[in-house]
DNA sequence: TTTTGTGCAAAGAGTTTGCAACTAG
DNA sequence: CTAGTTGCAAACTCTTTGCACAAAA
């Protein structure tokens, strides 16, 4: 992800956009950010951006296919880099930690269900909620 | 669903609560209501309730296990009677129509994934998005 | 009569928009 | 230079809360 991707999307290469991309790429352990979180990370590293810009840029990135907007629990959107793989998420209700997974069996069933119901499949959203039993850390 | 269920939940039997229950039970073709929709249906049938009451009652119903709060893509919550079956949803992006389905294969995979990841499974949220090819109307 | 519920208005949280200043190309 | 972008404040949408009044038990 770089200036190239921005240009390709018809977006000018600006500081806020590059910085936001950077955060999405290596923003730390967690890589599913709310707009607010991106905003605070930017401020922490001394960037003078507005929250509105963060929202605007993330929305533009979403439309450009650079970013996926995730819709966990309710109120807040979360954003992650769209790396092409179409993974789903499992969220710990205690810690808030989010893991990704891909399950071919589920994917296939979803395709079949859409067909059975007479739908052209567009996308899906699957989130599993649970509580992490702190032990086996292997993803 | 009736006065009994309300009492069982420690809720007084009031007109707003009964009317809201009634709408959830036979509110028309669509049975996944936003708070706003419930509110309007109430007003249409001449009930003098406030939107705040609708939200409060729906939230209480949710806590009492009478209602499920659904979280389709964006901003607004939708509510449906909790009939015990734990179905998922498939939504038409064009018409907004929502169908329900239960898929044992997916359910089982979700259970397994939670276990693989070291989670105590709490719940899940699966929504399939597509566009309805208007033809076979059989659910 | 005591407790719980209700309508209304106001407040919150998250997100979007209008606009003048600014900057990339 | 020109079109696209930004920060700020204000606006908006959905939902929750404070409070005096009203209704259930």
Structure description:
2 copies of one chain form a homodimer. Chain A is of the alpha+beta class. Chain A folds into 2 domains: 3-81, Arc Repressor Mutant, subunit A; 88-130, Dna Ligase, domain 1 (2-Layer Sandwich), CATH 3.30.1490. Chain A has 5 helices and 6 strands; from the N terminus they run ααβααββββαβ. In chain A, the strands form 2 sheets. Chain A has a 3-stranded antiparallel sheet. In chain A, strands 5-4-6 form a 3-stranded mixed sheet. In chain A, helix 3 (35-44) packs across helix 4. The radius of gyration of chain A is 17 Å and the shape is globular. The two termini of chain A are 25 Å apart. The relative contact order of chain A is 0.13. Mean pLDDT of chain A is 91; it is low at 135-139. The A-B interface holds A 71, 73-74, 90, 92-93, 99, 101, 103, 105-106, 109-110, 113-114, 117-133, 135-137, 139 and B 71, 73-74, 77, 90, 92-93, 99, 101, 103, 105-106, 109-110, 113-114, 117-133, 135-136, 139. Strand 6 (119-132) of chain A pairs antiparallel with strand 6 of chain B. Chain A binds a DNA duplex (25 and 25 nucleotides) through helix 2 and helix 4.
